[in-house]
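Sequence and fold:
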Amino acid sequence: QVQLVESGGGLVQSGGSLRLSCAASGRTFSVYAMGWFRQAPGKEREFVARINWSGGSTYYADSVKGRFTCSRDNAKNTVYLRIDSLKPEDTAVYYCVAYNSAQGLSAPGYWGQGTQVTVSS
């Protein structure tokens, strides 16, 4: 079992920046990648970013490339998502996810509770 706890969300103005954090605990040995999804009001939950835990290679959705940066701190078992040049369209609940070896990238094995990001214009 893996537990994921997000933090760092909040209300920010358009054009600003913030950094989301996700701390993983439990049986994290089974995790080989982590990432982020988001769900805006009335929209489907969508993939945002992914990072390989060991090597640090990243993959981003086309819609967020250039503004979103995913990183990790191995010592703290924590993954981050830095969002720059925030837009009202970024308003959503952001979910941290962890991928395990059994399921691969077909679906995340674990989900956090989510953290709300609201961007005002």
Observations:
- DSSP finds no helices and eleven strands in the chain.
- The mean pLDDT is 95.
- The radius of gyration is 14 Å.
